[in-house]
Amino acid sequence: MFRKRGSGCVLTAIGDYLGGRGWRRGPVPEALAEQAQAGVAVAALAARFFRRPTEANAFAVHQARLRARREALAAAAALKAGRDLRRREWLALSRRLAQAAEEGAAGAAEGSRFGVAGVPDLPAMSAGLRDAGRDLVAALAALPDAPRCEARLIAAKRRAAEVERLRQRARAAALDGPNVVTELKLRTVLQRLSRAAEALQQAADGVAEMLESMA
Predict the structure, then answer these.
(1) Pick from 46, 50, 60, 119: CA 20 to 30 A from residue 191's CA?
(2) Separation of CA 94 from chain center
């Protein structure tokens, strides 16, 4: 079952909650799908902030970060109390999604605080995180369709790898700059976004393992 949310559709859980928390067997738990969408929103707003580093855009990222935290807590609680046979795998995926959202938001917050948000590669890095997250959401939606799911997982990993390539380029450019303090501040922001990309890579790997076990 698909439900409209934000700018796209997310796959919701199949069946009713049992005792208020458990769910019948279905492709993806609803709480996890909601968490994944919240992470995409964080990255999308971070990309907007890095394109236009205003206080309003920084605050929007902060609000999205708080929402992502709430969704992560809700997902973890529902997964721990649920009866899904893949509960451990879902919980591991939830932790990686939470890390990606947290690191992406922290990168924007530190970019604002350190005054380095105007670096050219930062918008593209956050946009890459956004697109990788969208591909991951689509992969989860396509979980019953192995070829489609695999294609979206490959796309997510490719986008995450591109974020790392951009980090390396931005770091190299910063090393050539005259200001060591600015370089150190930028390095912190770049590391945040790189960790977010790594978490999404690991999330995609986790879904791929689940897909293989279902074959």
Answers:
(1) 60
(2) 10
